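can u do me a favor
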């Protein structure tokens, strides 16, 4: 019984593995040059002259000869190919052992895979936070626009988190780099998901749909912040919009953008909602046209409909608006 108690105590004292493992491999698939950007056991990669981002996902079926599926990131997950990596184990790969300096194998079509690791970083790992240091590492992003794909440029100092310092922009039809966006500050590195773009995104309402946002702090939850970029056809490059706020929503009919910020009130069950409305005035510029702030007090669960409601509501006082603008939400919603 004493031995069982000791084992249980030991298990409880072992810290849980909660880091994210980012790796970059370069090499070849057949005769084509390839670059793979791993986030734990899956990856996004470029190979050959196609210049289309592909997704490498781990196959969990034990009876499948291959251990990875290949599909396009913007497709309906139709399998394009399969890859077998020799001596690959999902668990040991995630833990970051030294056994994976090289990845070798073959594709469903018989092409040889030969990759060599050139970069590795453990996010949320205390030792990496203290000791890791690197400059100007390019990391491929999952999302792309209609005509362009992106790599963020990341750097890290000892005892600091990795941050994005720039963005490289590439044309899809020939893979040529057309722009480097520099001077970026205050954007935490989140792997392949820092750049967000969808087919219907059009922040400057020009119908081109080549726009994107760069995540600054958190990926999910309220109060997230981003930098917004649009493609200017005349300049033939991306420019940053003058939008500052939280969790923006865009009205494509009215050509407006609204920032939503949630803040704590004086009491635990009080809540402040601060909204700023911006009107698009052309030439990739917005103008703030309205601010509203509501103070909601005495939050409770309505037993009749099981909804969370507030018994009182009023306009915010000037000092409450000022305090809400300064409020920094430190909740880590990405962990939920």
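np, heres the sequence
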């Amino acid at each position: 019984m004493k031995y069982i108690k000791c084992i249980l105590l030991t298990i409880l004292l072992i810290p849980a593995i909660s880091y994210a493992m980012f790796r970059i491999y370069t090499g070849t698939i057949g005769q084509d040059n390839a670059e793979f950007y791993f986030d734990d056991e899956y990856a996004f990669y470029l190979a050959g002259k196609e210049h289309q981002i592909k997704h490498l996902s781990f196959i969990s079926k034990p009876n499948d000869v291959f251990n990875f599926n290949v599909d396009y990131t913007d497709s309906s997950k139709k399998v394009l190919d399969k890859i077998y990596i020799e001596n690959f184990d999902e668990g040991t790969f995630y833990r970051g052992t030294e056994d994976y300096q090289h990845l070798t194998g073959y594709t469903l079509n018989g092409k040889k895979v030969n990759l060599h690791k050139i970069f590795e970083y453990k996010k949320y790992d205390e030792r990496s936070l203290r000791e890791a240091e690197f400059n100007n590492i390019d990391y491929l992003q999952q999302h792309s626009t209609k005509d362009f794909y992106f790599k963020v440029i990341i750097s890290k100092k000892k005892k600091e988190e990795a941050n994005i310092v720039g963005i490289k922009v590439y044309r899809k039809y020939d893979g040529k780099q057309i722009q480097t966006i520099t001077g970026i500050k205050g954007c935490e590195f989140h792997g392949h998901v820092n750049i967000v773009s969808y087919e219907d995104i059009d922040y400057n309402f020009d119908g081109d749909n080549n726009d994107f946002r760069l995540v600054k702090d958190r990926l999910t939850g309220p109060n997230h912040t981003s930098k917004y970029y649009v493609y200017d056809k005349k300049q033939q490059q991306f420019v940053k919009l003058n939008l500052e706020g939280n969790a923006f929503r865009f009205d494509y009919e009215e050509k407006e953008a609204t920032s939503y910020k949630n803040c704590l009130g004086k009491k635990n069950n009080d809540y402040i909602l601060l909204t700023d409305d911006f009107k698009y005035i052309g030439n990739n510029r917005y103008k703030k046209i309205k601010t509203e702030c509501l103070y909601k007090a005495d939050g409770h669960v309505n037993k009749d409909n099981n909804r969370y409601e507030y018994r009182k509501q009023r306009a915010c006082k000037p000092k409450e608006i000022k305090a809400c603008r300064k409020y920094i939400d430190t909740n880590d919603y990405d962990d939920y």
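The radius of gyration is 24 Å. hope that helps!!
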